[in-house]
Amino acid sequence: MKQTSATELGTGLFVVLGFAALFFMATQISSRGLTLRDDNYRLTATFDNIGGLKVGAPVSIGGVTIGRVESIEYDSKLYKAVAHLAIEARYDHIPNDSDLAIYTAGLLGGQYVGFTPGGAETYYKNGDRIEMTQSAVILENLISKFLFDKAGDGAKKTQGATP
Amino acid sequence: MNASNAMAGATPGEAIARLTDVAYTVGGRSIFDGLDISIERGKVTAIMGPSGTGKTTLLRLITGQIHASRGSVIVDGEDLSRLDREGMYRLRRRMGMLFQNGALLTDLDVYENVAFPVREHTDLPEELISRIVLMKLQSVGLRGAARLRPSELSGGMARRVALARAIVMDPKILIYDEPFAGLDPIAMGVVMRLIRETNDALGLTSIVVSHDVHEIGRLADFAYLLSGGKVIASGTPAELAANQAPVVRQFMGGEADGPVPFHYPAPDYATQLLGTGGNP
Amino acid sequence: MTVLSDLAENGRGQLEKWGRFTLFVGRLFAVSPRALARPRLIVEQVHNSGALSLVIIMLSGLFVGMVLGLQGYDLLRRFGSTESLGTAAALGLLRELGPVITALLFAGRAGTALTSEIGLMSATDQLSAMEMMAVDPIRRVCAPRFLGGVIAMPLLAAIFSMIGIFGAQLVGVTMMGVDSGQFWSQMRSAVELRDIVEGVVKSIAFGFACSAIAVYEGYHALPTAEGVGRATTRTVVTSSVAVLAIDYMLTAVLL
User: Fold this and answer.
1) pLDDT tens digits for B58-115?
2) What value does the mean pLDDT take over residues B9-28?
3) What is d(CA A116, CA C221) in angstroms, rounded to the nearest whole number?
4) Angle, vertex CA C218, rays to CA C212 and CA C222, nearest 5
5) Do C129 and B65 touch (CB under 8 A)?
6) Nearest CA-CA distance, residue C203 and chain A, Å
7) β-strands A40-47, A80-88: how paired?
8) Residue C188 neighbours by CB under 8 Å, 6+ apart
9) Nearest to B49 by CA among B28, B74, B67, B31
10) Is residue B5 pLDDT above 50, yes or no?
11) Total of domains in chain C
12) Residue B178 — left, alpha, or beta (φ > 0 → left; ψ -120 to 50 → alpha)?
């Protein structure tokens, strides 16, 4: 009988430890925790260019993450990228004239979507479409624009110098 | 001590197990070819033969662990080749088998070993199981060893526990594989007495595989002598002892050389020693 | 000519082995519901495969975590982002190292024990004796051990990852001076439930593979001392290769 109770104690300890580890991982280590109930609301945003935005990227307002990019698709009628955002229900006071832009976190960081709050008294609600968006900044475009401008300046200067 | 008192409520002369024209081949090697054996109900039947004649294979055929390549094996009215796994298990509940070294389950103690078949096949309450187990242990004289582990038992004791386990479900047929191998004379006497008593008291049929001529001579009601995949002689032990055929005489008398040669087939000795025959 | 026929023979043998293994696993699954009806036997095996492997798993987890802490710190320092150490350690452990190293250790500790135990039972006629008592050894002996391993593996992997993360934080925060708040908060914001699910799915798959292989090798071991020894070696080799191959496939599917 002694043998049996030692077995039970050992097994019990092991199982409790195992589940405690699983629980700890699910609640303490992960960002989202165990959300059994989906109480997010959804917004749709169209962009000319989403750059390197990925599914799962954070949606933030004033630097606070309030949701995630749920899916990205291409609308072949509008010739635009469409991003579906899932916003946590408790952040339900986003003025509906807020505009949305794609930013890059740090020089090498991933891209995220950020709201700049507007001043309207009405708020975005489930299913709304956000029209005021600003596309991702494409580094190559930026550089080529910069070089082009420089070249233009240079040309003007040469022209001005010639009497 | 013989045939006269061995008929505990059974019809004399009736076969409980019958092998007809059985052949068994494994890996292209023929073990049996045209084997005919019939085991009479209520008796102790011995299967004898030199090592390597497939005595253990014969037991595996009778218990349905392997199937004959040809011929029929009928045990307690069931044709083994027609039974599926479930049918086979149903038949095996009417059989008990004693393995050479007892084959006790090493992670259970003696008591639990004997209780094992009861627990697996019935939902009897604990006190009833305990009564059955202690009764069977008492009958093999090991009630006091109930809480020992199999590793603490001597060879003879392990076999007695295995016997208690084999009879705990009250089988009709009890099969012994080399029950005397490696036992001291006292333990051998004990096992012999137990085989006889169990057979007569419980009215079952016993099949004993052995090559111990003397023990079989005192124990068995009937004996088959196997050699070369066939039955070469059968009869009561007395009849076998009186048999004049050279193979039978060699085996019964324990002579080193004879029809079963002392030397394994080899090239000529002189040629090989002188170096002209090449190394094997 | 003989080389060709040898190859053909070998291929045939391999095919037969795969077939035998598949059929065996099929029977394991078929008898598992009936084995589940006797939870006592399974609890015993969870104890044998799980609780008895606990110490080796915890120790290994701690050291792997500490190594991750050191290596990760050194690597991240070159990019000036040591505060990501928590993220790196947690993702590495949860998704890869935890399940894989646990499975490899499991194969070495619990798998070999299962194989040699069942192999010895077969060598000492215990399995045949069960057959003769009309008890299916696959149901009574193999299935509880298989199920016990399947249950134990994800729990062991979780414990391994847990301890590993604490090991990384021990080195990173306590010894290297990474900010504790940064370590945990970065980890928390980067690790998602998906990452944890990936690890758990993997360890369950490894549990199935390792336990099935160990039980199979034991059951089919030649019933001699040498045969059991060889089967034990095969368990470790086959399980390890299987774990790494399954790991690649699952990673490709789950990423």
Assistant:
1) 888 888 888 888 888 888 888 888 888 888 888 888 888 898 888 899 989 999 999 9
2) 76
3) 69
4) 140
5) no
6) 12
7) antiparallel
8) A28, A29, A30, A31
9) B31
10) no
11) 1
12) left
CA distances from C21 to B76, C46, C216, C235 (A): 35, 23, 7, 13
Q: State whether residue A68 is helix, strand or coil.
A: strand
Three-state DSSP class for C163?
helix
Separation of alpha carbons B3 and C85, rounded Å = 87
Torsion of CA A8, A11, A12, A16, to 10 degrees: 180
Residues of chain B with CATH 3.40.50.300: 3-104+170-243
| Angstroms from C233 CA to nearest CA on chain A | 27
Copy the structure tokens of residue A109: 């960081």
Nearest to B228 by CA among B255, B198, B242, B248: B248
Decide if A37 touches C, using CB distance below 8 A: no
As given in the structure block, the two tokens for residue C125 are 């006629």
**CATH superfamily label, B3-104+170-243:** P-loop containing nucleotide triphosphate hydrolases (3.40.50.300)
Tell if the CB–CB gap between A17 and C196 is shorter than 8 Å.
no
Mean pLDDT, range C51-60, rounded to an integer: 93
The whole-angstrom separation of Cα B140 and Cα C17 is 44
Give the pLDDT confidence of A97-151 residue by residue, as tens digits. Answer: 888 888 877 655 667 888 888 888 888 888 888 877 887 777 777 788 888 888 7
**Residue A69, token pair as written in the block:** 């990019």
Which of A4, A22, A29 to probe by mutation at the C interface, max C CB count within 10 Å? A29
Domain boundaries, chain A: 40-139
Q: Which of C155, C184, C204 to mutate to test the interface with A (most CBs of A within 10 A)?
A: C155
- The angle subtended at Cα C217 by Cα C211 and Cα C221, nearest 5°, is 150
Helix (H) or strand (E) holding B226: strand B222-227
Q: Per the structure block, which two tokens stand in for C176?
A: 């290297």
Q: How far apart are CA A130 and CA A149, in angstroms?
A: 32
Q: How many Cβ contacts (< 8 angstroms) between chains B and C?
A: 51
Q: What backbone torsions phi and psi does residue B159 show, to the nearest 5 degrees? A: -70, -35
Domain region containing C22 = 2-254
Provide Rg for chain C, Cα atoms: 21
CA distance C198 to C218: 30
Question: Which tokens hold the place of A161?
Answer: 């110098």
Determine the Cα–Cα distance for residues A157 and A155; give it in Å rounded to an integer. Answer: 5
Phi, psi values for residue C200, rounded to 5° = -65, -45
Asked if chain B contacts chain A via 3 or more Cβ pairs within 8 Å, the reply is: no
